[in-house]
Amino acid sequence: MKPEEIAKMAQIASALEVSGYPKPGNVHRTRDYDDMEFEDFVISGIVIGDTIREACTDVDVENPQLGKYILQAVAETDRWIKNNTNLGIVMMTTPIAVAAAISDSFDDIRENIKLLMGNTSVDDACDLYDAINIADAGGMGNQDEYDVASDNAKNELRENNQTMYDVLKISAPWDMLAREMTGDMPAVFEIGYPTYHELRQSKSQNDACVLTFLTILSHVPDTLISRKYGSDDAMKVSLMTRDLLNIRDEPDFKDRLKEFDDYLFKNKYNPGTTADLTAASIFVSYLKSNFE
């Protein structure tokens, strides 16, 4: 698949994810937050295109430089938007995109993600830390070992030969994106992508996006919520989502969905990790269609 086609699909996925409404607890086309607006996410989805295309061109499988391209995309976003709008999406999208670029069929992508992640380097880890710091994203590296906020973090990574895969593996127990990137991406490939790919055959783009988001959240408690408020609150939100999905065919579903969005917004429950997984799932669905 051509790098420019993969890049366009990544941009489309980013735009469709943020456009989904009312996508509970997140910025969407009818809901802004105090520190970021819907348009910020649209812009950030556009500006990653050049980097994704470059990452997918003449891939060196032994040294795919995933960290370099994650940093490059986040730095480019920072030139246009002064908020962390897409770090998670970039982290998920980059290995999927590069894997697609070296795959002969859709079924090769997941295995190639594992291959590429296993071939990440210490430089990739340092670049990832720089990307996290540019985005000012908390949680992934806040730990006693290799704390991303530490001034000496990158020296420690180099001294201990820690690759990007290694540091994400450390964060995997409490960060869903790290768990996905080091664990065969089960939420994306086994929950999100199949759900979206089926729904887009019979539903509007918007409904497919929102229902995919809800399906992921109902299965996987959001780690952004759990880091801010604890695992019990994250589980509570997931159970509420499960109850909501049980009435998806009822006449008052849309009203209940809007009420849920309002409830999460009011209580500052932001399932941002789920949004990232949704964008990645949409991306994979488009890749599937273009491989067929």
UniProtKB/TrEMBL annotation:
<protein>
    <submittedName>
        <fullName>ATP--dephospho-CoA triphosphoribosyl transferase CitG</fullName>
    </submittedName>
</protein>
<dbReference type="InterPro" id="IPR002736">
    <property type="entry name" value="CitG"/>
</dbReference>
<keyword id="KW-0808">Transferase</keyword>
<dbReference type="Pfam" id="PF01874">
    <property type="entry name" value="CitG"/>
</dbReference>
<dbReference type="GO" id="GO:0005524">
    <property type="term" value="F:ATP binding"/>
</dbReference>
<dbReference type="GO" id="GO:0046917">
    <property type="term" value="F:triphosphoribosyl-dephospho-CoA synthase activity"/>
</dbReference>
